[in-house]
Amino acid sequence: MMSRILLITIVLFNLLHAFSSAYAQILEVKVNITNMRSQKGKILLSVFKDSKSFDDEKPYKNFVFDKNHLTSGSLTVICSLEQGTYGFTLVDDENNSNELDKNMIGMPKEGFGFSNFFLEKLQKPSFDEFKFDLKSNRTIIIKIKYL
To answer: How does DSSP assign 2-47, residue by residue?
Structure first.
């Protein structure tokens, strides 16, 4: 009898855990994008969850946004994600090629940016430099850099 109660308790606990994971809270990230130079093209936003995925260039999610509501070089977009740690990278894809175009020596020809981080030197930041914790709805800023 005792083992049956224990078994039922374990099964109920596992079911409760499975349902709570399946219905994880979806949060809203408002992304304020600034310093855009043109209304041409679209915005490519990649979401990374850790440094390995960033280093391997394998995002957790990708979002594409048009620039129809661009005003004075600024645009606000909204992403829905579960609670966690993330880092956003952004490409101002002015020619709709679906990638960051580079010149012959590998320098970006289009604008790019990172969540809450403005690149001041000519080297790719580490994930830790632009990651953020998402525990509730929040706003982040991405200032686009053009070389």
So the answer is: HHHHHHHHHHHHHHHHHHHHHTPPEEEEEEEEE----SSSEEEEEE
